[in-house]
Design brief:
This protein is mostly helical and about 180 residues long. The chain has helices at about 10-35, 45-70, 85-115, 135-170, 175-180, and strands at about 120, 125.
């Protein structure tokens, strides 16, 4: 018998991704408002490292999520609950979400690699610096990709949340599939 809802692993990872993405958006606005580093203001490194650590972890969670989603698929929704065009739109939404999350995380790392700042994964493992040296043009290039894909992610997340609210108000069981543990 095929499961009706998503696996517990998929549900947990989904909500970890959601909370992490929310934190990354909030922390990025806070980080960018901090004064530039100086002899007086030396505390800026911690929030940036935390932001990068969560971003790198997000890529790993995303890969695990994709594995879990493909390995443990729930039963398809009935045609009364989700019409074919809705199912296609939901698939497109998820593909764009996953693609944007991946591009955002990679472009953020690449921007950091060319900024001259090192990245340590949870202050334990030094991540290789692909840039090898500071390059302001490449830092700005990847930073712009990071910025614009973040705005695109906000737009797609608005569509995703709107779809979830639509199904929640219809009480058609779609949202319960992602909430069931």
């Amino acid at each position: 018998m095929q499961r009706q809802g998503y696996s517990s692993s998929a549900v947990i990872i989904h909500w970890l991704l959601a909370v992490s993405i929310f934190f990354l958006f909030v922390s990025s606005w806070w980080m960018m408002a901090l004064p530039l580093p100086s002899d007086v203001f030396t505390y800026r490194e911690f929030p940036f490292q935390l932001h990068k650590n969560i971003g790198i972890t997000l890529v790993l969670l995303l890969l695990i999520m994709l594995y879990v989603r493909f390995r443990h698929r729930p039963a398809p929704e009935s045609a009364e609950v989700m019409r074919p065009w809705m199912r296609k739109l939901a698939i497109l939404d998820h593909v764009i979400l996953y693609g944007l999350i991946f591009v955002i995380c990679i472009s953020g790392y690449m921007s950091s690699a060319y900024s001259g700042w090192d990245t340590e994964l949870w202050w334990l493992v030094e991540i290789p610096n692909w840039g090898y040296e500071e390059n302001e043009e490449l830092n700005i290039f990847y930073s712009n990709i990071h910025l614009w894909t973040c705005w695109a992610l906000l737009a797609v997340l608005a569509v995703h949340i709107s779809g979830a609210l639509y199904h929640a108000f219809r009480n058609d069981g779609i949202v319960r599939r992602m909430l069931r543990l």
